[in-house]
Structures are given as structure tokens and as C-alpha cells.
Prior knowledge:
Layout lengths: L1 E8 L12 H5 L2 E4 L1 H7 L5 H12 L2 E9 L8 H17 L5 E5 L12 H13 L5 E5 L7 H5 L3 E4 L8 H16 L5 E8 L13 H14 L4 E7 L12 E8 L2 H17 L11 H10 L7 E5 L14 H8 L8 E6 L1 H10 L4 E6 L11 E11 L2 E3 L10 E3 L3 E6 L3 E6 L10 H4 L10 E4 L6 H4 L5 E5 L31
Parallel strand pairs: 1-3, 1-4, 4-5, 5-6, 10-18, 10-19, 11-17, 11-18
Antiparallel strand pairs: 2-3, 7-9, 8-9, 12-13, 13-16, 14-15, 16-17
Helix pairs in contact: 3-7, 4-5, 8-9, 10-11
Bound molecules: zinc ion.
Amino acid sequence: MRIAALGFHHETNTFQSVKTDYDAFAGYEFLRGDEIADQHLTAKTSFSGYFRAAEKFEFDLVPLLWAFTGPTGTITKDAFDRITGEMIDLLKENGPWDGVLLAQHGAAVSEEYSDMDGEIARRVRQVVGPDIPVVMTLDLHSNISHEQASNTDAIVAFRTNPHLDAVERAVEASDILVRTIRGEVRPVQHLVQVPMIINIVKQPTAFGPMKEIIDDVNDVLQQNGILSVSCGQGFPYADVTQMGVSFLVISDGDMDLAEQHAKWLARRAWDRRVELQNDSPSIQESISRAIAAPSDGKPTIIMDVGDNVGGGGTADSTHLLAEAIDQRLNGENSLLMSLFDPDGVQLCISAGIGSTITLKVGANTDDLHGDPIEIRGYVRVITDGKFEESGSVHGGMRFWDYGPSVALDTEDGYTIVLHTVRGVGNMSRQQYYYMGIFPEKYRLVICKGTVSPRAAYEPIAREIIVSDSPGVTSANMESFSFVNRRKPLYPLEADTKF
Ligand SMILES: [Zn+2]
């Protein structure tokens, strides 16, 4: 049994001014053939799950291509044409296939295709024809579309946020694929798009109303005749018609059953819509709460929601840093954070380790993320930015590259790490450990994320404050000018009916 595996994986924030071009993939993670096993075999990603499934279910997995970069702006037509073109050529040249595994995100947008994942599924279907099963794995933040569903035999999305179940879901998807090829099951899937947004601050699955939604999903999974159930939590920073919450139920040959369960899930989520909206504190309140926190040797973690790198943030917002300075947070190890700042890194490298320099840091991409802030800092570390994370972190990536990076210590007791690769965020504490920096020792750690840093920081936090900071991934959905999204959509149209 020969199964092709390939993926062109991107979460696109269409409000970000920086377009995502071919080099953004080529310079990040663009792997072909055996290179994919080198990076993913021991990781905890979807591809890693495909490899494990191949062993478990005894099929020949043929990894063809994997293109991935951090969440950034709309994918250029050139990048789409070249990467998709190569995927389709590889699929044609290396066939025939018994099945296809597609590792997509579900919230990718290119200049030409507002539903890039749906278009890729359509082209893959065109190559293999209607009789070869195509199964697609997606991120929980997928905006699942009818195009995606109608061009695949099954879609399986993550069910945890932070995303810690990529391997399990990939194995589940592979299981459905193999059983379909053997003729043991006949998956049919029904999609219901709910006219609502789940605010980014209410998306963690371990507690609150989102946990109740996943509990419902798990209940349906236990029902007779059900092969898989996915909730597309939605990625709200994509101005496209499929943006929003969706439920997809796969049954074994019974479309009515799939439809009935999908509608039940949609209704239950809709009934929780009020609890699923933004109620997070302002940056002023977040910083004063961090300053007022007792010094019990554990850091307060502030999530910088407006600069959520996992959602397309620029990684250089200074709003919270400016507020900490304004409110005179200081003292030994008072604050730790990272900023994307290639010019700052260059200045520190030129000055050299052990020098003390004055420079402006951050806010170098656009005018949504504060002003560059002047700091005077001691250059403690200069490094290549590469490290390995073998623990469980959001998304399961093992090998990380922040590009040339430096650590600066200021007289106020702040440690600011500057790095040169943008879309990497704060999902692993190894980001600091490998530089000899211990986040545990700080009073306040600012993380550029909303949910994704939780897996790394919950174990050491005294409290996690999810802060309503401004920026391209703000929790304040009214601050975005949507043109293409579907209407009505709660809470943007408060009187939405469903
Ligand atoms: Zn996600």
C-alpha cells in the first residue's frame, strides 16, 4: 500500500502588511523526501504521526514535500504557484497511489485563492481521481470550508489548544485512510459552519466554554457509526468567507447521521456564544497586576494578545514593555521578553559581548505595535539562535531557529532577547535556557502569544494574565476592517440568528 504525504502549511493573517513569499518558506522549513523524516521522525508534528502510522498500519509512506513557515501575511501568487506546482508534479511523477495524506493548516490564504487549502485539495483530487482516498489533517484554528470537505474523503483537525495532539490526530487520519483503502469503511462527512467567532482569548481547550465544546466533540466520537469529529475553532484574522467556527462529523456511510451530530454540536456551541467573547484586562491593568503580585519566586506571565506570533503577530510590539517602564517596574530580574529586531541584533554584534550600548528596540514593522523604545543594555549573549526542544510544546516542533540572537540586560533588571527570524514566538522555554537565561527567576515574563505559550509557561507561572493589548492579532474584533468575511457573524453582528 503506497501512500503519498505532503503539506503546504500556513496560517495566514490577512491583516498583516508583510506578504509571505517563496523565500519565507525556503528560509524556514521547506523539505523534500528524506529531509522530512530527518526533521519530523522524532518530533511531535502531524508528519511525525504519519511516520508512526506507517509503522503501525504497515503501509509505505512516501513523503514528498513539506513547506511551512510561521503565521504571516497573505501568500504571494508566486509562492503559491511554485510550491503547489511542485507538490502536484511530485504527486504525478511518483504515482500511482493507494491514498494521499495532506498535512494542511486550514487557514491559508493566497493572493489568488482565499481558501488555499480547499484549492490544494481540489488539485490533489484532480490528479488522483475520485476513487483514491484523500485524507487531510488540519490545525484546530482551521476555517473549514465546503471546498475542503468536498475534495477530501476525511478531514481530521487537532482537538487541543495548545496543540499537543498532532501525532494522535495524524494517526487517526491515517487509520481512516487505510481502512477506506481496504474497503472496511466508507467515510462521508458533513460540515456545519456556525455564524460566530470564538474570541482568541477563549480558545484554550483545557478550561472554560471551549473545554465544554471539546467535551461535546468527544461525546459524539463515542456514538455508533462515527469515524471522526472535528471542530474548526476558526482563525479570526483571515478576512475570508469561511472564517468562523465549524463542525465536521464523519460517519461510516451514513450522511444523515453525520449531519444530525454536526447540527447538534453547532447548536450547543451557539448556545455558549456569549461566554466565548473577549473579557480580558487592558495592558495598564495587566502590568499593575503583575507589579502587585507577591514575590513568591514564580513569574507572572502576561500574554501579549495583540502581538500573538502564533496568529501572525509581528513579534516586535513594545506596548507592554512601554507600559512596564511607565509603571516603573524595576529590580533584579524584573522582566523578560523577546523582540524581533534584526537591526538591534546587528548593533549588539558590532558592539560585542560585554559591551554596554544604548539602542532603540522593537516596533520596526508597522505603526500598530507601539514605538521603538530606547534602552541601555549590557550585551550578555550572542548566539546563532538554533536550539532543540524535546519536550511537549504547542505544535510539537523539535528543531528551532530564531536566527542570530542577542540577550541584553538593562539597569532596570530587564532581560530583552532580540532575534532575527520573525514567526517563532515564545512556545518553548528552551528559547531562553540555551542562552543561560532562566525564566523562572523573573518577576514578569511577557509572551508573544495567546494560547500557544501555555504548554511551556503554565508549569512555572504563578499566574497567567491574558492581556487585551493592541496589534494585528488584537482580541478586539471590532478593530479590524473586514471586507470579505461572511455576514452575519456573532458578535460583530450582535443580532445574528442561527
Ligand atoms: Zn493553531
